[in-house]
Amino acid sequence: xxxxxxxxxxxxxxxxxxxxxxxxxxxxxxxxxxxxxxxxxxxxxxxxxxxxxxxxxxxxxxxxxxxxxxxxxxxxxxxxxxxxxxxxxxxxxxxxxxxxxxxxxxxxxxxxxxxxxxxxxxxxxxxxxxxxxxxxxxxxxxxxxxxxxxxxxxxxxxxxxxxxxxxxxxxxxxxxxxxxxxxxxxxxxxxxxxxxxxxxxxxxxxxxxxxxxxxxxxxxxxxxxxxxxxxxxxxxxxxxxxxxxxxxxxxxxxxxxxxxxxxxxxxxxxxxxxxxxxxxxxxxxxxxxxxxxxxxxxx
Length: 299
Fold this sequence. Notes:
Radius of gyration: 19 Å
Low-confidence stretches: 294-299
CATH class: Alpha Beta
Largest sheet: 7 strands, mixed
Mean pLDDT: 91
Number of strands: 7
Oligomer: single chain
Order of helices and strands: EHEHEHHEHHEHHEHHE
CATH topology: Rossmann fold
Structural class: alpha/beta
Number of helices: 10
Number of domains: 1
Shape: globular
CATH superfamily: LmbE-like
CATH architecture: 3-Layer(aba) Sandwich
Strand content: 5-15%
Distance between the termini: 25 Å
Helix content: 25-40%
């Protein structure tokens, strides 16, 4: 609640790794924070899979320490109200040995989905957001951790208001659920440029385990398009602190000065309430959101 007793707008982002928040949604987060929205983040893993160059270890002992230190810096730049760390191990890409680690998010979700769902439900009930964002069904680029947290969040969104589903927090019904989307045109241009250079768009990345064509094939319809043109400076600043992961996400096909003209929006698939047609029908995630507290009393 605000000091004058009015309910605040609250947004919860449920993502998998330290850096997902900045690379994927930096512009949107900066916009809504500036407009007075309280923005919260679930980061489900420690981002511990992979290697980091020695010069990026920051004098810290482990990869998780580095990744979470970078997240803390990005969170300060983006001004999250609170970050919830679930601290599962990073799974790595689909089919990798690390995705079979029983402590990884992917393996844990498959062995005990109820545990992950309950933890996300508890955060939803504590934060009481009107709006929730998670990945699309393909997990953006097919990462198993993205898919696991997407499934857990979608189910938690349903369970949060159920008075028969008991947690330490009271039941609560968020009003909107969105899946993040990827600019289709950017992916199409990227595939075209890769083919011109003789690259295989189905085998991209350091380990050649990212399939750009599959990303395009799994893009879901957009219903919400939010203008973030003026928030690229904050987006870039938050992305830059994740230096161990390259210090930036996306948009590397074009000069930075072009981006706010080529891609001035971030788009989303609205899952709830379900649209009547697959078309852009809103430009604000809080469109038609009520600021009255929606509380289901426990029976």
